[in-house]
Amino acid sequence: MMHDEGWRIGVLYSRTGVTSVTESEHFFGTVLAIEEINAAGGVLGRPLEPVVYDPKGEPDEFRRLAARLLMEGDVNVLFGCSTSSSRKAVLPVVERTNSLLWYCSIYEGFEYSPNVIYTGAVPNQNSMQLAAYLLQHKAERFFLVGTDYVYPRESNRIMRDMVEQHGGEIVEEIYLPSDASETQLDEVIRDIRAHEPDVVFSTLIGIGARRFYSLYRERGIDSLRTPIASLTMAEGETQLIGPARCEGHVTAATYFNNLDNDSNRRFLALWRARFGEQPASMWSEMAYNQVHLFALALKEVGVLDTRKLVRAAHQVSLDSPEGRLTIDPENNHCVLTPRIAVCRLDGRYEVVWQNAEPVKPDPYLSSYGFADFWLR
């Protein structure tokens, strides 16, 4: 029997705006986990009760709605944000109210807050492996293109360090607005043709990224010879762009939806029953995982107290669709398994390399030399 009074939680993902596709996937993963937990009797007999807003991809709107939820809405646990600019916009409100933000997106690292659990990959769990993979597969000349905000600039700084330390060369580094126009992207593609790099590392996001992938093939660049490598392009966006246009492109992530394990098969069955043919991806899977991690922590402490929840979150583990998940008590980031995959003609991603074991998060890149990232 469930009690009437539920656990109120805030959900802040953009269903509209420039990042609506990936943030809608965050939203669907969150919904799936909440419904699954509630169908099984909730947490300690009480349902999760989400209070949901759409910040439309605007950092100011994220800040305003987070303040509404945390200061007026009787909520102190928030699932939300995707871009670093939105996370940085809500962080002061979260800390001031001593609330807890669960943040499931990959990001550039170099942050710690006692009020945030970071469940997405940081650079020592994705970008360093991607750089090593590309360099080991004879890419020497890299062309960098990104959206003009903190995550792409930091990711490119790390990529540049890796490439230059190992004898490669950055031939160009360009930044565009988040809704980059066809004209702006055409100019970048002309530059790519002129420089003839071995690989293009893209940190474009949202609409701009999808336009770029579409134009890349349309303008006649051979993706099998000069692939785009990314940390963000996943199954959902690939389907929208058209799988044939994405063949040969490379993504580094901790989850791809054709992983062969029982937990993933279970997740995909739930996903298809609820959302039909829309593909699950890392954006939905990590959002799904973190709600389950939260529920496990809440079950341990039975109260929505930030300090107690965080302490409990450090103790729990989840058999997730991507593998065993735990949270590192030193920095509130997840221990994750890096993988690299190449997009096939049918839009599926073929995993071409994965780490033998989960990798501890090192958001400040403090304890590794780059030599550690040669893929064995």
Question: What key attributes describe this structure?
Answer:
Rossmann fold, Peripla_BP_I, single chain, five-stranded parallel beta sheet, Aliphatic amidase expression-regulating protein, alpha/beta, 15 strands, AmiC_PBP1, 12 helices, amide binding
The largest sheet has its strands arranged as 7-6-8-9-10-14-15
Number of strands: 15
Tell me the fraction of residues in β-strands, as a range.
15-25%
Count of separate structural domains: 2
Principal-axes shape call: globular
Class of the largest domain in CATH?
Answer: Alpha Beta
Topology as a string of helices (H) and strands (E): EHEHEHEEHEHEHEHEHHEHHHEEEEE
Summarize the biggest pleated sheet.
Answer: 7 strands, mixed
Tally of contiguous helical segments: 12
Low-confidence sequence ranges = none
Separation, N- and C-terminal Cα atoms: 52 Å
The averaged pLDDT comes out at 94
CATH homologous superfamily assignment of the largest domain: Response regulator
CATH architecture of the largest domain: 3-Layer(aba) Sandwich
Estimated radius of gyration: 20 Å
